[in-house]
Every structure is written in C-alpha cells, then in structure tokens.
Design a protein that fits this description.
single chain, mainly alpha, 3 helices, 0% strand, bMERB_dom, coiled coil, F-actin_Monoox_Mical, monooxygenase activity
C-alpha cells in the first residue's frame, strides 16, 4: 500500500472527523436556538398580555413594556437569521461529505489503468465525475447565496 494512498486515506478520515465535529456543534447550537425561541415566546406572550390587560397603567410603563417587546422581536429575528445560516452550513457539510465520497470513488476508478478498464468501469467513472461536478455546482450555489445574503445585510 503506497505511502501516498495512506496519506490520502488519513487526510480523508481527518476531514471527515472535522465535518462530524462541525455538524455536532451546529446541532447543539440549533438546539440552543430552539430553547431560546421558546423562552422568547413566553416572555413575549407575558408582555403582550400586560399591554392588553393593563390599559390603566402609566404611559411610561406601557412604553417600557413596548420597548421590551420590540427588543424580544429583534432578538428573535437575529436568532432566525442565525438559524438560517446554520441550516445552510448543514447543507454545505452534507455536500462536502458527498464530494469527498465521490472524489474517493473517482480516484479508485482513475487508479485503474486504461487498458484494464471495462466499459462498465468507464461508464461508472463518467457517472461519478458527473455527480461530482453536480455536487460542486450545488456547493457553489450555496456559497453564492451566502454571499448575496451577507451583502444584502450590509
């Protein structure tokens, strides 16, 4: 087993572990966001109820509650943006994993000498290459979406 093959296999495993760790971190953050959403909803419901029921309250108190409610809405919108970014990151990780698998599959076909390849091998190699190009294009679209989103936020 040549050294370069071991190196490629080791790097592929390392990259896979990095993707796995990133996926776990994203999942944890998504769960945290979900919990925070629930808390914000409860706080918002309480504030709305106070605003509706306490019409006789001083105006400055009502203004304070309204400001708190607007702050909660802003916080919720920020979390929704973060959640959207994380969902895009999840898609990107999936495509990255697919790309890695297809790349390894393509390398295995390309390591076969042309004279030894069967017509089925050639067809499978071309299909793998087509799939790899499709995955790369999907990743490119995701990156463009992220860039457009970032520019629109600025």
């Amino acid at each position: 087993y040549p050294t370069w093959k071991r190196t490629v296999a080791r790097r592929a495993r390392e990259d896979q572990m990095k993707r796995f760790c990133r996926a776990q971190a994203i999942q944890r953050r998504l769960e945290e966001i979900e919990v925070t959403f629930r808390e914000l909803e409860q706080q918002g419901t309480k504030l709305e109820k106070l605003l509706r029921d306490e019409n006789e309250s001083p105006a400055d108190l009502q203004t304070q509650w309204t400001n708190q409610l607007l702050y909660l809405v802003q916080k919720k919108n920020n979390l929704m943006t973060e959640e959207s970014d994380l969902m895009i990151a999840v898609q990107e990780l999936k495509l990255e994993e697919q790309q890695c698998q297809l790349d390894q599959k393509l390398r295995s076909y390309m390591n076969i000498e042309e004279a030894l390849k069967t017509p089925e091998d050639c067809k499978a190699e071309q299909e793998t290459l087509d799939q790899l190009v499709e995955v790369v294009n999907k990743r490119n679209i995701l990156i463009q979406m992220q860039e457009e989103k970032r520019l629109s936020e600025l």
